[in-house]
Amino acid sequence: MSGPLTRRRTAELPEHPDFLWRKPQLKKSYDVIIIGAGGHGLATAYYLAKNFGITNVAVLEKGWLAGGNMARNTTIIRSNYLWDESAGIYEHSLKLWENLEEEVGYEMFFSQRGVMTLAHSVGDVRGKQRNFYANKVNSIDTEWLTPEEAKKVAPILNISDTIRYPIMGATYQARGGIAKHDWVAWGYAKAADDMGVDLIQGCEVTGIKVDNGKVQGVETNLGFIAANKVALAAAGHTSTLTQMAGFRVPLQSRTLQALVSELLEQVLDTVIMSGAVHVYVSQAHKGELVMGAGTDAFNSYTQRGGVHVIEHQLAAACELFPIFSRAHLLRTWGGVVDIAPDASPILGLTPVENLYINSGWGTGGFKATPGSGWVYADTIANNAPHALAKNYSLKRFTTGHLIDEHGAAGVAH
Amino acid sequence: MLSINCPWCGARDETEFHYGSQAHVAYPENPETLSDEAWAHYIFFRDNPKGWFQERWVHTAGCRRWFNVWRNTVSHQFGPSYKPFTPAPARP
Amino acid sequence: MVNLSQFKVSPLKGQSFGNLETVSIKEIAFVESCDLRVEPNSPVAKKVEKVLALNLPQLVGGSAKGKVTALTLGPDWWLLVDANASLVEEIRQSTMGEFISLVDVSAQRTCLEVSGEFAKTVLQHAWEQDLDEVAFGINACSQGLMARCPTIIHRTDEKTYRLYVRSSFAEHLYKFLVDAATEYVK
Amino acid sequence: MTKVNFEFDSKMYSGTKGEPLVVALLKNGIKTVTDSTYLSRPRGVMALGAEEPCALVQIDSGSGEPMVPATQVELVEGLAARGLAGIGDLPNVSDDARYDKANRHVEVLIIGSGVAGLKAAQIAVSKNQRVMLIDDAPRVGGYFVAKNNEIDPELLAVLDSPNLLHLQRTTAIGLYDQGYVVAIERRTDHLSANYDPKVARIRTWHIRAKEIILATGAFQRFLVFPNNDRPGIMLSHAAATYIDKYQVQIFKKAVVVTVDDQGYEDALRLHKNSIQVQAIVDVRSNAVGALVDEVKKAGIEIIFDASVTNTQADEKGELAQVAISKVDLTGKVLSAVKEISCDLLAVSGGWTPTVHLATFIGVKPKWVKEKAAFVLQDLPKGLSAVGSVAGDLGETENTPASFFGVLPEGELATVSFIDLQRDATVRDLKRATGAGLTSIEHIKRYTTIGTSHDQGKTSGTTTIGLLSQLISKELEEIGTLNFRPPYIPVLFSALAGRDRGELSDPIRTTPIHAWHLDAKAPFEDVGQWKRPWYFPQNKEELHQAVARECKAAREGVAVMDASTLGKIDIQGPDAAEFLDRIYTNMFSTLKINHSRYGLMCGVDGMVFDDGVTTRLGENHFLMTTTTGGAAKVLDWLEEWLQTEWPELKVYCSSVTEHWSTVAIVGPKSRALMKKLAPDLDVSNENFGFMTNQYAAVAQVPARIARISFSGELAYEINVEGFFGLHIWNAVMDAGKEFGITPYGTETMHVLRAEKGFVIVGQETDGTQTPQDLGMDWIVSKKKEFIGKRSFIRSDTSRDGRHQLVGLLPKDKLKLLPEGSYLVAKDSKQAIADSNHIGYITSSYHSAALSQTFALALVADGRNRVGQNAIVPLFDEQVEVVITEPIFYDKENTRRDG
């Protein structure tokens, strides 16, 4: 196994650029309207402009730019998913991450500090081993660590075999890591704006106009905007939008919670996930512990979740990392994610011509940002699903060809 | 931590319940006669509204009964709970 | 007849902790109990009530005492505490062929008795539901999760609560309650 | 007044027990508590309570705790603390103090025991309802007491009400839906520097209230101007309290800068304590009234239309002088007035009502200009506010100004602090707006304002206000205060509570567990159950023990504790019909006292659980489920009964723990069974496979079932849970002469895999149909059952799906890793194409086969039987042959003995 990766520890972040984006004049019509200026929407706009020269694009955002899940996630990046389809798109994404800062020209704190996923029982080991071998055959970097090796990567791990759910092994993806969410969104936004994409904040879509099965544009609080093509990129709110266009999607919106501690001296150089005891944690650049909790079990658009989920998670964290027992919980929050029955995304065409869907990323949306944007832009530009998205169609729910990522893959973060 | 009103036991913590998604989705009468699309809609497609929603919960750790309830997915406010196969109360 | 009790071992082996002046936690081993499922108010329910010499309380959370103590766990579900085999057989005989379910669950749960001045206080460390007099008077019962263990609680007098916990969870619940009681036991 | 010794920054000091650490530090002449996080500027105490943005300390005594505001620490003997520059230091030893949780239901919860809270409590208590009153501070009274007032004893008497639970040092950290509040009670730190191992140090209260009354008060705001962060600059109310109430005597000369009448009140308190108040600098144009008159009478100069616009420090970096200029309300500096040397600058920037808890559930506070404050309005049912949080900020004769500071250019902007913890300044704010940002959320993220340990308590309103000054927009257009729980930082261990160590999650055990412990068996976690994994003898490794255990089961007799299997008692006239609908195969044809293996699917047609179900009577069945699936299967059965088929007369009851099951397995099990139950006819003729008999076993009544999960002759002895250990011991005793061998889950897995029996959750992952598992034989064509429709979907019915097969490595000793993948042939090319054909679900050494073997799910597997394939392990390539998924005793000759 390789050792822990070089970290960049800066309590103080470098400064954002002096200029980020224009406040553009809204046009009457666009070639492409993207609904949702989150990470995926912004990345899609960027790749439409960059890869296809399509710049007559508006990204409509009902609130403030990247203020949805992009502002709320735990920023874990990895590609070690179980199924070939997932491996394909997440690995494509990871490869894009690896050059993204340079390409976009914006610091994003992309840090390949490794992602370790713990296994806590014989069955858990079996599942994680399958994941490990699946990654191997898909040429995705992965290592299998014994508990002792895991402790070398993260010395604060409790690998005692007397704890309630002892650590029995771990997978480790050295190329995995974290990035800084706001910086990623702003990087894409600035780059898209530079190429002429209009970023329209405070613009809420209230209707999608469809004539003869073909999309014509969107109704908004700022009036009707015509468009040749409309692309949905509004995680959590997708089903509300598809309803406007007259079709249903098998998505449920759930609250996914996360939390941070106060700033702490560096104790953890890697990302650690444990599905079995519901912990995933990294220590961000400034020093705070960033942890994700589970999704609440019921539909919600409130961006607030149950405190019992947080308590359960902190209890598990104290078990795995005794040193965390004195850390302070500083802030908790929730994001609204949409989840498909197989915990995999829905990306591609829809029953409405020239209307496209990108949704259902559940808890995996952040890490997919570049890959999803790339593939989605391609799908929109060519009006045909990109090769990496062909199995992510809505049709799979009819044929039964599901891509079930919540079974053996364990926690889907 | 929601407090959910079980029609039999009264208000209890969310942790005593399991969620059952949209209410009033009946098992199709003759599944064999359904198209694949219609069957897929029965298995996988559920409403996901912003606002008031008729949904199912089961009081797993208590009386183990399924029931329906109005809940607002934007405010977490609850409307009335009601027993299965009883007429649904009006939207709050 | 073989005396079968010599072969029995209870989940907590009769352990106890604390004292009656502050709080005491002890296992009451081998309480005979039976799950009764029957349509309330039905003719067959009446037959059961006759055998038991009590009216089955209809409201979930109620209890009644006759030849057994009946705890109402659901709208058609009672736990009959102290239901010995011959009594259960008597119900069975009198309801033969009817829609009723009688299931011996004596070993399914074990009984812990928590009593004393701080009994309620200690239990509220583990039990979310309201145990105050206004909500949970003497003879009230309820089913829920106590320290994440499936548990039925029955208040038998002013300062005494009986817990019926799934046997496989008994040791966890006992340890949890002992830990919670530590600062109250003088 | 008890004198105590404490340590600060490695030096010993003394102070008065119970006083805030900041007071003790000030009294010892320590104005600089720490350095700032990024710029290393000296910082002292600014505020009075939880809102303190500067004076952070790390506690090294007792349990130890990083990053606590020194305003919140009560002095005790032996306290050890050090100044902390905003980055906490986690002690690398586990925190052994106790933490617990308590639940409480009340009709009324009042948060805040200031005068408003006490009055609310008085009303609530008089209605004879259950009331709870909690407050953050050590003592009641809030700001009223901080101002050195005495509370009316009649009001205080409310605290003795029997229907009131009153807790100080208890902070509401979260307010959630349906009247739910989580509060943290600090119970021991104020008693001793060392923790009492018996007493819970922090108690987390989970409170359900029908009505919640917020009486949380308000914070005073500071003002922004160059060098506004020096030790010696304090909120006026804090300064007055430390000096007037706590008698801190280290300050001599003060200046007060104010936007409201509070500054005048506090100036008079300083004056009363012999501080020379040299000026009140008031940003307003005029102020009149009794307070102003009194100030004038005291000879204090008032400078209107002005603010402090810079400060100078002494050699220690502490305040030495302030510069005063005329300013306008947009923060523009007009002309210099004068400079005054002083060691205290008391700042009164207006009040911020403590609205946090209400915003947690989505309430949007509204800016009220006449009060210069965000105030709670439109509260949901069950939530109300009293006192200053409701905007009752006291009657003042002059309206406060909506002024938040000066907005200098250049170098001065870089030392005009908005968020003191983050060292975020006016320069940062201006850069943000210059970059095109208009949303307050973007500005916070661009500047990091509001993200430090105080979560914007002091900087929130100020940022919105300064932005309003900067871009000349009304405050309400810019945004409102929006906070997230918890209200104050909370220890992880406090929220973990008692769920740590061995109590972190319930451990489920069988009645035989004690024996397994004595035998030193390693355990396998299956859900919450602890199951013996194997029973090592003489320091055997897993595979050695398993080989021995398997051999015993195949050649002699072995025994296993099968008590964890889920068991559901199913009764009613429609029980058989019900099972026909649930299982893919038929149960209505099952004879009484016979057992049948069944498979159930979800509506999607994928295998969901399996087990053996026994017909105990015409209308009575006993279903077994997988160990991990018991709860979800019972849920599943009841869901269908209650929500789809209410016409079916069936009751289900969980009896998992009621029955303890001991399985005896192997050719010698019949002899052992005979010995254990002398009255039982154990012959195959009278006790056939998949039938049940009742008999006394070791004198205890039992149901014995001829069920085999190993292919061997086997009996499962089912007894009431109480008898489980007795039966196990009896089996071990009686089995001695047959060489009885206990075995665990691993051996069970090997034995079943040799026979090709699947384990749901191992051979399946939620994407297998019964047909995929080669179990077409169990899928009834005659009847409808759950999931049947899904089998004819295009993907589910297509050829070439992954199907269960066996694998035999060419190298008979090579154990294939479970989870590894197969490729058809040329593995390099196959890998390059990502062209795997399947993966291994189970893999074992087989004592019976004298070689290793595996089960796998392989695309079009059944048509590949007989073909070779490769398992690429990257350092080697293992050749295997694909076989039928059954390796041992294909003809089932062994199960009858």
Protein model, in words:
The complex is a heterotetramer of chains A (413), B (92), C (186) and D (897). With 413 residues, chain A is of the alpha/beta class. Chain A contains nine helices and 18 strands. With 92 residues, chain B is mainly beta. Chain B has one domain (3-24, 35-82): Folate-binding fold (2-Layer Sandwich), CATH 3.30.2270. Helix content of chain B is 10%, strand content 35%. In chain B, the strands form two sheets. In chain B, strands 3-4-5-6 form a four-stranded antiparallel beta sheet, with no helix packed on it. A two-stranded antiparallel ribbon of chain B has the order 1-2. Chain B starts with a strand and ends in a 10-residue tail after the last strand. Chain C has 186 residues and is an alpha+beta fold. Helices cover 20% and strands 33% of the residues of chain C. Chain C has helices at residues 43-52, 85-94, 119-123, 170-181; strands spanning 16-18, 24-28, 33-38, 63-65, 69-74, 77-81, 100-104, 109-115, 141-146, 149-157, 160-166. In chain C, a hairpin with a 5-residue loop joins strand 1 and strand 2 (24-28). At the A-D interface, helix 3, strand 12, helix 7, strand 16 and helix 9 of A face strand 6, helix 11, strand 29, helix 14 and strand 30 of D. Strand 16 of chain A pairs antiparallel with strand 29 (490-491) of chain D.
